[in-house]
Amino acid sequence: MTTTLADVLLVLLSDGPRTVQDLHQRHRDTLGPARQVDITRVVSTMTRLERLGHIRPDAARSRAQYRVWTVTDAGHRSWRAWILDVRAGAAQEDIVVRALLALAATDRPTYETVIAACTACLETRRHHPRRRRPLSAPDALDDLDDAVAATALRWLRRLRTRPRARARVT
Fold first, then answer.
1. What SS3 state is found at 158?
2. What is the pTM of this model?
3. What domains sit in the chain, N to C, each tagged with a CATH number?
4. Helix-then-strand count for the chain, H and E
């Protein structure tokens, strides 16, 4: 299962009510500038999430110019099901995004479960055997895949041992 912007926004919104502008900034802060999305994509995704019943406006917190959004029960079930469903063979990018979102926006038990699932996924990956023949481009790509997976695995193991700094919106 690949990561969608809807998945990311639901997880970020699960940490507390936010405006579209807040979510756009939080997305960039959490996932980094290389994964930044245009605010118009955030707006259209929020519209779709509202239509699906996963989010609703928080009338008490909204202002004339800025609508504040909150996750519904259906949205809560959706993001939890997605973030905890780390399947064997998940793409490296998917694992990194889930780990970063869990770190930034989930409670401690969910965070630990996600990190454990991501770690288990990487630990079960088949490493490519080293060949004694002349190196080819496919062999070099296999070596790169192994090196990236090993690095990601070390990164996930380190995340488990470090305290988290999490600012929660109330």
1. helix
2. 0.85
3. 5-161 (1.10.10.10)
4. 7, 3
| pLDDT, tens only, 79-121 | 999 999 998 888 889 999 999 999 999 999 999 999 999 999 8
Question: Is there a contact between 8 and 31 (Cβ–Cβ < 8 Å)?
Answer: yes
The DSSP result for 120-136, as a single string, is: HHHHTSPPPPP-SSPP-
Q: Which of 67, 80, 88, 84 is nearest to 17 (CA)?
A: 67
**55 touches 13 (CB < 8 A):** yes
Cα angle 106-82-6, degrees, rounded to a multiple of 5: 85
CA distance 26 to 157: 24
3-state secondary structure of 45: helix
